[in-house]
Design goal:
globular, 14 helices, single chain, 397 residues, C8orf32 fold, 3-stranded antiparallel beta sheet, mainly alpha
Length: 397
């Protein structure tokens, strides 16, 4: 073989083993996939985190609730300063004890459920908080609005908190489930405007939110009440709304500013005043179930806690009048004796009077709402007391 041929053969590359060829092909396939995965990770990590709270979230620490009272009697012995440390849900549930519909009420179980609800609300709020950071204008430029919107949404959609549709037109104070929060916790009964704001407030406070109850005429709502962030929360409908204070002067009942001041409407309640409103609901339930003495005790306790609210004293006096008419006569509430004239309309008058009294009893007012003045006796069909004729005037029919 010539030298030229030997040199050409020596310069020809050696053939590759089959294993190395397959490894190189696999590497060519894997490398692009890994590159795409790394780029995707970098891209998504640059977006606001949906699982890690922002700096503002650290201001709200979930609270662990500890029972402070074993019974309603023990709760009522506390001072207003001591009541400030009592969980609002505990106060609400203790006021429901012993009422129809609360015979098997397990307060500790209900409180534990509220704790789980609060944990779920916190998780969902932290997960979506970037939405507020990106577009605060979509949420009234209020972090309180955003947080309460998340709270109401989670409680309604995930845990079934809802208004009892049967109570929209048919008010029935005999059922404790409609007045207190146990009707919505482990119960499909649903709540009303008296109980739903209490549930929202109880969960909010477990998250450290500055939320309080507020009364207006025939209605209760809650309020995010921070120094620079004050939002009224309306969650009795599906979803959440926020209305101004002026709105509640016209809805659900029209009320003048003077009446609002007199009845302390639209003022964020203290813990003692919140307990007083729960005691008033207890009184309404008791009196409609014929337990008038217990109702009087509830109204009187509410008046002691919130003496600036005139409705509690009015309800207490009404209950006492049903129990002890002579007592009120001695205190200057004497009414003229009912001397019926001998006429065929007397029985009809008495029946009309009884029917009117029953209607008033079946539709008691809401907490914080003064009872309307009684119409003149002659407009009720009541028999008039006897009055001697005046000389020179024709006798009364």
């Amino acid at each position: 073989m010539s030298k030229k041929k030997r040199k050409s053969r020596a310069s020809k590359p050696a053939s590759k083993p089959p294993e190395a060829s397959r490894a190189r092909k696999a590497l060519n396939i894997v490398l692009p996939v890994l590159t795409v995965a790394v780029l995707a990770l970098v891209f998504f990590s640059s977006k606001p985190s949906t699982s890690t709270p922002t700096a503002s979230t650290s201001n709200f620490t979930a609270l662990t609730v500890t029972r402070k009272a074993a019974s309603l009697d023990e709760l009522l012995k506390m001072t207003p300063e001591q009541l400030a440390d009592v969980d609002i849900a505990e106060m609400n549930l203790l006021c429901a004890t012993g009422l129809p519909g609360a015979e098997n009420l397990d307060i500790d179980q209900r409180l534990a459920t509220l704790g789980r609800w609060a944990a779920r609300v916190k998780h969902e709020t932290d997960r979506h908080l970037y939405r507020f950071a990106q577009n605060p204008g979509n949420y009234e430029n209020s972090e309180g609005y955003f947080r309460m919107l998340m709270l109401v949404t989670v409680l309604q959609q995930d845990f079934g908190v809802h208004y009892n549709k049967h109570r929209i037109r048919d008010v029935d104070f005999r059922r404790s489930q409609d007045l207190f929060i146990h009707g919505m916790i482990g119960d499909d009964n649903g709540g009303t405007c008296v109980s739903m704001p209490a549930v929202y407030t109880a969960v909010a406070r477990r998250l450290g939110y500055p939320v309080k109850l507020v009364l207006t005429k025939s209605h209760t709502f809650c309020r995010w009440d921070a120094p620079n962030d004050r939002i009224n929360i309306e969650g009795t409908n599906q979803g959440m709304n926020s209305f101004s204070d002026e709105y509640y002067l016209t809805w659900p009942d029209k009320v003048s500013e003077a009446e609002a001041r007199h009845n302390r409407y639209l003022i964020s309640l203290t813990p003692a005043e919140e307990l007083a409103s729960f005691l008033a609901s207890r009184g309404h339930c008791l009196i409609d179930n014929g337990r008038t003495k217990e109702a009087y005790d509830a109204y009187a306790a509410a008046n002691r806690l919130a003496s600036k609210h005139p409705a509690y004293l009015a309800w207490a006096r009404d209950a006492q009048r049903r129990l002890q008419p002579p007592t009120f006569a001695r205190q200057g509430f004497r009414e003229p004796p009912m001397v019926y004239r001998n006429d065929p309309m007397a029985d009809i008058d008495r029946i009309n009077a009884i029917n009117h009294a029953n209607m008033r009893r079946m539709q008691p007012p809401m907490p914080g709402v003064p009872q309307p003045p009684m119409p003149p006796r002659q407009n009720l069909g009541l028999p008039q007391p006897y009055q001697p004729p005046v000389p020179g005037q024709p006798p009364r029919p």
